[in-house]
Amino acid sequence: MTNEIRSIFNRIAPVYDQLNDWLSLGQHRVWKEMAVKWSFAQPGDTCLDLCCGSGDLSLRLARRVGATGQVYGVDFSSAMLEIAKQRFQRQYPHIQDLSNPVSNIRVTWVEADVLDLPFEDHQFDAATMGYGLRNVRSIPQCLKELHRVLKRGAKAAILDFHRPSNPQIRAFQQWYLDNLVVRAAHNLGLQEEYAYISPSLDRFPMGAEQVTIARQVGFATATHYPIANGMMGVLVVTKL
Q: CA distances (Å), 145 to each of 48, 78, 83, 99, 161, in order?
């Protein structure tokens, strides 16, 4: 399953940002800023962005922690990481100019599986994850690894799409996926790749279940915030 998901994301990498705009009705930028805010990342922090994809959340984190901070963007898709690197170079072409601290944000891109992170225990001050938890092979193992690498007192904010509990909104979400998102993906030759979204939503634990799993793996506090009428949510966890 891991290789299948990796292959999907490698194929969709060139149009991932464009399709995210369509999938979220353009709201994903707002939701990502919410996730960064709820991670409580501070200037100078060392931060982790899991399933970083094209690097959007990683760069938002990097701007927040500033020139004295450090961000590690982790993904198992080499194609996604290449897009992230290109985005980084476009936004910060003068990154080596030490006289300009604004452009000296530091991001390290790491190709790795989030179920087996290549980091020491208690390494990170804060973490984010966007649209990744729904696709991992084992949610408990992913959260367990996240717990391991966070420092005591650190928070993580995990953003993802969800199935809303309201039947009418759920029906609208399915109509939107079938008639707009998958159709748009079809026009780009990626219908099969984006057809996976609907079954992945069906498998994904609801907010209360995510809270239970997070506490079971060791997080002291876990709160799930539904947004966009329950079609999106952010799980915020704290390690003590």
A: 12, 21, 25, 37, 22
